[in-house]
Design brief:
Blueprint lengths: L3 H24 L4 H9 L3 H16 L11 H25 L4 H25 L2 H7 L1 E6 L3 H14 L4 E7 L20 H8 L3 E4 L10 H9 L3 E4 H9 L10 H4 L8 H21 L1 H15 L4 E7 L5 E7 L24 H8 L7 H7 L3 E3 L6 H10 L12 E3 L1 H5 L6 H17 L2 H16 L6
Parallel strand pairs: 1-2, 1-3, 3-4, 7-8
Antiparallel strand pairs: 5-6
Helix pairs in contact: 1-2, 1-5, 3-4, 4-5, 7-10, 12-15, 13-14
Length: 456
């Protein structure tokens, strides 16, 4: 989830923001006086400014590997992020009495920050800097399991944080990988890794018995080189659990599903406080949406539907009605599809903007849901998926959520195959559930709201 390049880019961004503040102060009427005052005692306003900017960058997905070095995405998201940041900082300065020099320096500081952050991303996505930021890996194996590194990570994510220097086949039949260099059994694996600057060795052999050079791997490990199984590598890089070859014992050794009582109590307190605040803040939107639904398609405004929650317990989820009243007149649960003709005019808008999810805050307040967790499905669909997809039931060991790891990483699912792909992300959340991961998901959710790709 975290990578060397994220740390480097984050540190570079912070440096740019600090330099922009200093240059902005120098450009103000106070000039050197304001500059020396800030150096002597950095103000809390500028600290808040940095926090707001970084927060907006996270919300806009600029630390997401899929968008971090895509220049078209970077420009678009930086513009949107700085518009939001400018509004937030302006409100902050309006509420707090600040020195005139700070207000004078703000426009220049923001302009310089924008230019500097854009230059950083352009530099990081080109030439030797890009290669430096990527980890150099050596893959032991060149068959089906090794091919997943290409299909599950590199091709799907596009801007991955590693580069496979070579694949080493461990048997004559292992020739599934053809997109990168193949090396036939180097005599001294550790020396080869030293010469090639390998940071990590990934074990991806199709048949482990009698095929792995254990002595060589032990020598590499003793040299301080990281060695990772391909399933763990894909889980870390792609943020998903590989279902093929997975055993139920993985849950026994996971940390997230065994969160202690204090952690769960803290999460519940956060859910209650946040939902109470949001119910008040979103009240104008709730009333306006209810009125529009009544005018567009009549009563009822809300839609109640039975869903499967924690440990398989059923509950009724509440949403704004976005489909016609006869959407399921035959009583059979149906997947939502792209350009679904059952969706009303207002329903299309509230689905794209996620406004239809607002009433679920009541479900969070009542304790049936949390803000973060796997999306709850209908019992009939759950029963069908549990028969067709292994390990599907394990997503119910945590509370369902309004948003989740699958929601911010995968488009809206409308098929069995989509459900299988989303399960990989849901199980990753179950295995790695934490306060930090919850926070990152909430920040990424803001990004999804601004760029609602996959919403239906």
């Amino acid at each position: 989830m975290y990578s060397k390049r994220m740390i480097v880019i984050g540190a570079a961004d912070l440096s740019i923001l600090l330099v922009s503040i200093l240059l902005g102060l120098l450009s103000s009427q106070a000039g050197l006086g304001a500059y020396h005052d800030w150096l002597a005692a950095p103000s809390i306003e500028w600290t808040a400014y940095i926090i707001v900017i970084i927060g907006c960058l996270i919300c806009m997905g600029l630390y997401n590997p899929d968008y971090m070095f895509d220049m078209r995405e970077a420009v678009t998201r930086l513009i949107a992020g700085f518009l939001v940041a400018f509004i937030a900082v302006s409100i902050l300065l309006g509420l707090v009495k600040t020195h005139p020099a700070l207000q004078q320096a703000l426009p220049a500081a923001m302009a310089l920050s924008f230019a500097g952050l854009l230059i950083i991303r352009f530099t990081a996505s080109h030439g030797f800097v890009s290669q430096f930021l990527k980890r150099r890996i050596l893959v032991l194996g060149a068959g089906v399991r090794a091919q997943r590194i290409e299909t599950e990570v590199r091709k799907k994510r596009g801007h991955c944080g590693f580069f496979p220097i070579a694949y080493i086949p461990t048997s004559p039949d292992e020739r599934g990988v053809s997109v990168v260099k193949l090396i036939d059994d180097p005599i001294d694996l550790n020396s080869f890794c030293n010469e090639a600057g390998i940071d990590e060795i990934v074990i991806a052999v199709d048949e482990r018995r009698g095929t792995m050079p254990i002595d060589m791997l032990l020598e590499c490990r003793m040299s301080g080189r990281r060695i990772t199984a391909v399933t763990d590598f894909i889980e870390r890089e792609a943020g998903q659990v590989e279902l093929d070859g997975l055993y139920p014992s993985w849950l026994v050794f996971s940390q997230g599903a065994a969160r202690g009582g204090i952690d769960r109590f803290f999460k519940r307190v956060v859910d209650i406080v946040t939902s109470s605040i949001l119910l008040f803040v979103t009240l104008p939107v709730t009333l306006a949406t209810a009125l529009l639904i009544l005018l567009d398609d009549g009563y009822p405004v809300f839609y109640r539907q039975t869903r499967t929650g924690l440990n398989g317990k059923v509950f009724e989820v509440v949403k704004f009605r976005s489909m016609r009243n006869d959407a399921e007149k035959d009583g059979v649960a149906k997947w939502a599809t792209k350009d679904d003709d059952r969706v009303t005019r207002i329903g299309l808008f509230i689905r794209k903007t996620r406004i239809d999810e607002i009433p679920q805050i009541y479900n969070v307040l009542s304790g049936d849901m949390s803000f973060v967790g796997p999306r709850p499905e209908r019992p009939s669909i759950v029963a069908d998926l549990e028969d067709k997809i292994a390990f599907f039931k394990y997503r119910h060991v945590v509370k369902p959520g309004i948003t989740g790891w699958a929601q911010v990483n995968y488009p809206y699912g409308a098929s069995i195959e989509d459900a299988r792909e989303k399960l990989k992300y849901d199980l990753y959340y179950v295995k790695n559930e934490s306060v930090v991961l919850d926070f990152l998901i909430l920040m990424e959710t803001v990004r999804v709201i601004f760029w609602p790709d996959g919403a239906r």
